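User: My advisor, Dr. K., asked me to get a structural model of this assembly before our group meeting. I'm new to this, so sorry if the format is off. These are the inputs:
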Amino acid sequence: MSKPSFVYVTYIATTIERLYQALTSAEFTERYMFGRRVESTWKVGAPVRYLGRDGKLSDSGEVLEADPPRRLVFTWRVEFDDALRREGYSKVTFELEPLGGEVKLTVVHDELREGSGVLKGISGGWPKALASLKSLLETGRPLAISSPESASAGEAAAIEAARRTPL
Amino acid sequence: MDKVFKALADPSRRLLLDRLRARNGQTLGELGEHLDMSRQAVTKHLAVLEAANLVVTLWRGREKLHYLNPAPIHEIARRWIGEYERTRVAALADLKRALEEADHE
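Assistant: The format is fine. Below is the predicted structure of the whole assembly, which you can bring to the meeting.
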């Protein structure tokens, strides 16, 4: 049986080259990935680093496959949280396919652990980031979004927020 | 968006989505297990869910696996629930669940 995995498919009205650029350049990622700037040459074997707004390493990995602008596969380890970091490397695949005037973007995040905290986090994080990416490419504006930390912190944070927020 | 609402209007199709939410990446056979639905009916419902982009399929070797795609439902939520109201909505949903669970004990 396959390990836990996250799959997200969206259709974006743009060109395949522009979408590939948006996935691989810091100028774009910082506008839709919660301020994270990506750094990589995107050649097979090259390191991939996502840096947070504070300049600290947020996530890291290594390019496994690169077929620009159609396909990119790299490993992914969360670096900003010790417990999540200990879950080790998972794998992210971007597949881009032009269809009519749109590009079908498939994001697969797999090779995650059973009961993975990373899966919980990315299940909240990717949809927000990718919806914002779609908005950025189609309208020139990203979405106003809260951080993935607040999206994934779960019940404790929600209860804490409920205590502090007058309803 | 019409396709999404039509796909969600059927309880059998919602049940299939629930099963994928519980365990993502299942074959047609696995999805149909212990369901009061013919293989044909499952196939038909999955086609409707796929057309609405609620379910996507990926090949793993010879197996065609079905995955829940969160994109359309996320877009619906975003359209009617503001990003900053979401924490409150989630808190209220948690409260409701906690109270209902307490009632059952």
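One thing worth pointing out at the meeting: The two ends of chain A are 44 Å apart (CA to CA).

User: Perfect, thanks a lot.
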